[in-house]
Design brief:
The complex is a heterodimer of chains A (407) and B (242). With 407 residues, chain A is mainly beta. Helices cover 7% and strands 62% of the residues of chain A. In chain A, strands 1-2-3-4-5-6-7-8-9-10-13-16-17-18-19-20 form a 16-stranded antiparallel barrel. Chain A has a two-stranded antiparallel sheet with strand order 14-15. Chain A is globular and about 70 Å long. With 242 residues, chain B is α+β, with helices and mostly antiparallel strands. Helix content of chain B is 20%, strand content 54%. In chain B, a hairpin with a 3-residue loop joins strand 9 and strand 10. In chain B, helix 2 packs across helix 3. Chain B is elongated. The chains are: A mainly beta (407), B alpha+beta (242). At the A-B interface, helix 1, strand 1, strand 2, strand 19 and strand 20 of A face helix 1, strand 4, strand 5, strand 7 and strand 8 of B.
Chain lengths: 407, 242
């Protein structure tokens, strides 16, 4: 971790402690504390049993400074352990540990217009097994950035426009393909390959129980070049773009609550992919889908649709609730072909589908604490049958115990 | 024990057994043998008692009964003292507590006496720290602080031996780290509290969470180490508040 990041982290923590210790004696101070912990066991058809957990610990506060100004500060420590993930995202074994600090100044310019500039600092450690050290994770990263949001309020409707940026550095990342091509060199030759500038422009609309949001994300890589069919990197830098739209509803019918959400994403990347069947395979005809080395142009671009419908039925006392939900994610690649069991490309484009059902009970044990026991059933399917490194087709079960304290 | 406590104790035990079943017995023992320091560091944290001194009390002593004293045979002792009450001196000054503890696995000395290969053993640990606590609603207190934990796991052999091709005359698999701890306490009745807390080790990046139900003399806890050798540790402690 860089020295400046350590200083910012330490200063922010001390500030948070000082503010929290002193703050609630002041008028207009609202503290926020949340500890959410889930420990689950997983079982799936292609593997054995494994366990994983998630922790989200947040400490925050909102201060009314004077008049129309509000300062919002939040520190979160998040841990994400092994678990089921959609195909082509993260491995089941992957873990992450994140420190996230957010500061936002909310300035009410007029009754109908609120300006919200903000600052964010994040440190994310990622690793693939408990035997790795967090600091050395290939995808561990640090980011610093900010945002500017504008809320325009008219009647019961809020229109929000936001620009967000992050400067993300991956200090440990190395491009294995470059290393492989230059195996005779002993020095680091691809440092900073994943360093990137992340920008998001979004427009949101909220009225009562309806929420609509559309965003455009641009990820500009600072050093990573685009791979050519010759097997060499060209001069063009990698650029990823993601167009996302989301519509959600919060429906309450007395004791029955349901929150359907539909998301649609169009992800485009100019990066290509060279598939080597084995170490030392030589490049001959890269257009042959069954060859030892095959080049796939526009390998990463896809369209994705997600439907999520969580629901709960609350008892008349409010102490018990029955939870249920369904989540369906379908991804269709624009140019990537599916592979057979032998790692040969087929003629059809790759399509992934993952459907997750959940059902459980929740009990409120104190005013601020609840505990839930949730069973999950996952069905994953894909026309990609090459599953040496990641399962694409399986049926899984999970049982998770969740504790949540929120004040 | 109320039905609620019993219910959650059972759930904890179910998850404990499920967690252990995730690996074969050989694999599980292998993980402990490959990282005994890490495993016993978790056990040490089980016996650490980090929560604010109760309202109206000045001093508290504690010993962890299960799984530390029994069946592991680890003698342990913890204490915490209220240095300053909340609102004393200045209204915004929180309650300040100092805490600490020590443990020793005494039966390792018996092994040392009976063994001709082991010359000396030290299997012990200690911790200490400071906690600040402030009331945020009539029944809820928020606390945070720092602690230093040290585990000694040392074995000295009577003579140098070749183990896996290396000449070894002693083992030192101890651990030490500084932790940030934070949590929330909710009063459930006279001498009864529900406590949720989280700890984060700066050097080892150990993350842990604990939920506990504290009564007049006993505290039932559920410690969770997501990256640990054994993820869920149910604990039972005995304490006297003065």
């Amino acid at each position: 971790m860089k020295k400046t990041a350590k200083i910012i982290l330490t200063a922010f923590f001390i500030l948070s402690v000082v503010v929290c210790v002193r703050g609630w004696k002041l008028n207009g101070f609202t503290p926020y504390v949340c500890l959410d912990l889930t420990e689950s066991v997983f079982s799936y058809t292609r593997g054995g049993i494994f366990s994983g957990g998630n922790i989200d610990a947040s400490l925050g506060a909102e201060f009314e400074i004077f008049g129309r100004n509000t300062l919002y500060a939040l520190y979160s420590l998040e841990y994400s352990g092994p678990g089921f993930h959609p195909q082509d995202t993260t491995n089941f074994d992957e873990r992450s540990l994140s420190h996230i600090m957010d500061l936002e100044w909310r300035f009410e310019l007029f009754d109908f217009l609120v300006l919200k500039p903000g600052f964010n600092k994040s440190i994310v450690y990622r690793r693939f097994g408990a035997n790795e050290t967090w600091e050395n994770g290939l995808y561990s990263n640090e980011s610093v950035g900010g945002h500017l949001a504008i809320d325009y309020i008219f009647g019961f409707t809020t229109l929000t426009a936001r620009y967000l940026f992050r400067d993300i550095g991956f200090p440990n990342y190395t491009d294995l393909f470059t290393e492989f091509q230059n195996a005779n060199l002993s020095s680091e030759i691809s440092a900073g390959a994943a360093d990137q500038k992340f920008e998001e422009f979004s427009l949101g609309f909220e009225r009562g129980k309806l929420k609509v949001r559309a965003s455009y994300i641009a990820i500009n890589f600072e050093n990573q070049k685009v791979l050519l069919s010759s097997g060499l990197y060209g001069d063009t830098l990698q650029k990823d773009e993601n167009f996302q739209s989301e519509v959600s509803l919060k429906l309450d019918f007395w004791f029955f609550k349901i929150y359907p959400t539909v998301k649609f994403a169009v992800f485009r990347s100019n990066q290509n992919y060279m598939r080597f069947k084995y170490l030392g395979a030589s490049i001959t005809d890269v257009t042959n889908p069954s060859g030892d080395v095959t080049f796939i142009d526009d390998n990463y671009s896809y369209d994705e649709l997600e439907l999520s419908v969580p629901a709960e039925i609350i008892s008349s006392s409010g102490r018990w609730a029955i939870l249920a939900g369904i989540d369906i994610t379908r991804r269709v690649y624009k140019s990537r072909f599916a592979r057979d069991e032998l790692n040969n490309y087929k003629s059809e484009k790759q399509k992934n589908l993952i459907t997750r059902f959940s059902a459980g009970i929740k009990k409120r044990i104190t005013d601020i604490t609840s505990v839930s026991l949730v069973y999950g059933f996952t069905v994953a399917g894909s026309n990609n049958k090459f599953e040496t490194y990641q399962p694409y087709n399986y049926t899984g079960h999970s049982l998770g115990l969740n504790y949540r304290v929120e004040f | 024990m109320s039905k609620t406590k019993l219910y959650f104790a059972l759930l904890g035990l179910i998850f404990l057994s499920t967690d252990a079943r995730c690996f074969s017995a050989e694999h599980f023992v292998g993980r402990i043998v490959s990282a005994p320091g890490a495993f016993f560091f978790e056990v040490q944290q089980d016996m650490e008692n980090i929560s604010p001194v109760a309202v109206g009390k000045r001093f508290s002593v504690n010993t962890c009964v299960f799984p530390v004293l029994a069946p592991a045979g680890i003698v342990n002792f913890s204490a915490k003292i209220k240095f300053r009450s909340e609102g004393n001196f200045r209204t915004y000054i929180p309650q300040i507590d100092f805490f600490g503890g020590y443990w020793n696995m005494i039966w390792t000395k018996a092994v040392e006496e009976k063994s001709s290969d082991i010359a000396d053993t030290d299997f012990s640990g200690y911790y200490f720290g400071v906690l600040a606590t402030a009331t945020i609603s009539p029944k809820t207190r928020l606390f945070g602080g720092f602690k230093h934990s040290r585990l000694n796991a040392d074995f000295e052999l009577t003579e140098t031996k070749e183990i896996l091709g290396a000449l070894v005359d002693s083992f030192d698999s101890g651990f030490a780290d500084n932790f940030v701890v934070a949590g929330i306490e909710q009063v459930k009745g006279a001498s009864r509290q529900f406590i949720a807390q989280i700890g984060y080790g700066k050097k080892t990046k150990t993350i842990s969470a604990k939920f506990s139900w504290r009564g007049r003399y006993f505290e039932l806890g559920l410690n969770i180490y997501p990256e640990g050798v054994l993820v869920v540790h149910p604990t039972l402690s005995f304490h006297i508040d003065l």
